[in-house]
Amino acid sequence: MSPGPLAGVRVLEVGTMLAGPYATMMLADLGAEVIKIEPPTGDISRQVSDSYFASLNRGKRSVCLELGTEQGQHRLAELVADSHALLVNLKPSAILELGLTYEALRRSNDKIVCVALTGFGLYGGDDPAFDYVVQAATGIAALTGDPDGPPTLPGYSSADNSTGLTAALGLLAQIVSGRGGQIDVSLRDVMLSQLNYHASAYLNNGVHPQRRAGGAHSFYVPAQLFPTAEGYLALFVTHDGFWRSFATEAGLTAGTQVPFATMAERAERREEVLAVVSEVLLGDTAAGWEARLKPLGIPAAAVRTLPEALDGLPEVVVDAGPYRLVGSSIRIDGYQPDYRPPPALDEYAQTHLRATKPE
After folding, report:
1. pLDDT at 21 over 90
2. How much is the pLDDT for 353?
3. What is the C-alpha to C-alpha distance for residues 336 and 43, in angstroms, rounded to an integer?
4. What predicted TM-score, i.e. pTM, was given to this entire model?
5. Would you state the torsion angle of the CA atoms of residues 235, 238, 241, 246, taken in this order, to the nearest 10 degrees?
6. What is the CA 251 to chain-centroid distance, rounded?
7. Are 167 and 20 in contact (CB under 8 A)?
8. For the chain, how big is the Rg over CA atoms in Å?
9. Whole-angstrom Cα distance, residue 269 to residue 88?
10. Crossing angle for the helix pair 19-29 and 158-177, nearest 10 degrees?
11. pLDDT tens column, 47-64
12. Which end of the chain is flanked by fewer CB atoms within 10 Å, N or C?
């Protein structure tokens, strides 16, 4: 096996809970050395549960520093001098007060890449910016749920995870550039960016997003959840070829005639299409439809619980010491991540830190 693509890259993390630690864990999975800088009490996520902490911090090192003290700042400067990047996931005032910015740290290493991961931007204030709050504030909750019911949330930390991915991308892009600098990534901006086509439709055509039954797509029809004889089916018909195949399998065709044959017609006659599809899907179970449609190349899946999905995909589960976790979603030929357990608090003593400087 070859070394990871990020072997030799050292990333410092001053993170808490989810978004920042998730970003740096992805980098650790790709071979980077990630040093998690924690206060003496540790990242607060250690208090949630051991498995929660492991799911965001496998493969890292832990060093305790009191960043508000002169000694802590001195040790931070030493670490920065030997590192490629620093990712910080704190409120903006704390980032600025503790000197965790490029402007403050360039004296120690003018090539250091500093990533500030915040709720509303490094200079956007300290308003609380937890994942669910941001989903509510950016229109995501308003788009989610039954149209006759209240707005709802997807049930997992989509804003935190998405912002972590974005922060990792920005960090790597700046490292590749060979220049140090400040990167500013916020939960608000990431989630608005991910509403891309909804935002474009409103900004350019004045179209207000609608919450639709079954989580239906705003244009593709049929593309949503449907009840079946047993369970729910996700059906996602994006082009006319898929529709022809589905209509034939479902018995909707009359000879060679395919009803609602074009994408534009299906969008225009949405309610008629949904009525026909809803009725025919009641003729089989979700598992039955999935088995029938997948061989035809039609995007369809029975709704499963997370345990059902994991039990059916044992290859995605890895061992990291005593923990069973979902492994990296990035598969690279010839490379297998070293899934080490999460670090004990301050287990990587400062005297054992690697002394080599990044090139």
Report:
1. yes
2. 52
3. 28
4. 0.91
5. 20
6. 39
7. yes
8. 24
9. 50
10. 50
11. 999 999 999 999 999 999
12. C
Torsion angles phi and psi, residue 302, rounded to 5: -70, 145
Q: What share of the chain is helix, strand, coil (3-state, %, to 5)?
A: 40, 15, 45
Give 1's pLDDT tier (boundaries 50, 70, 90): low
User: Pairing between strand 33-38 and 113-118?
Assistant: unpaired
Token couple for 190: 């990431």
235-241 LR contacts (CB < 8 Å, sep 24+): 235/277, 235/281, 235/289, 235/293, 235/298, 235/299, 235/300, 236/299, 236/300, 237/266, 237/298, 237/299, 238/299, 239/263
Crossing angle of helices 196-205 and 187-194, rounded to 10°? 70
CB 85 within 8 Å of CB 168:
no
**Omega cis (within 30) before 227:** no
Which pair of structure tokens corresponds to residue 125? Answer: 């204030």
- CA-CA distance, 187 to 164, in Å (whole number)? 9
- Burial grade of 14 (CB within 10 A; 0-12, 13-18, 19 or more): buried
The answer to whether the CB of 281 falls within 8 A of the CB of 226 is: yes
Alpha-helix runs per DSSP H in the chain: 19-29, 50-57, 70-81, 92-97, 102-105, 131-137, 140-143, 158-177, 187-194, 196-205, 240-249, 263-268, 270-281, 286-293, 306-312
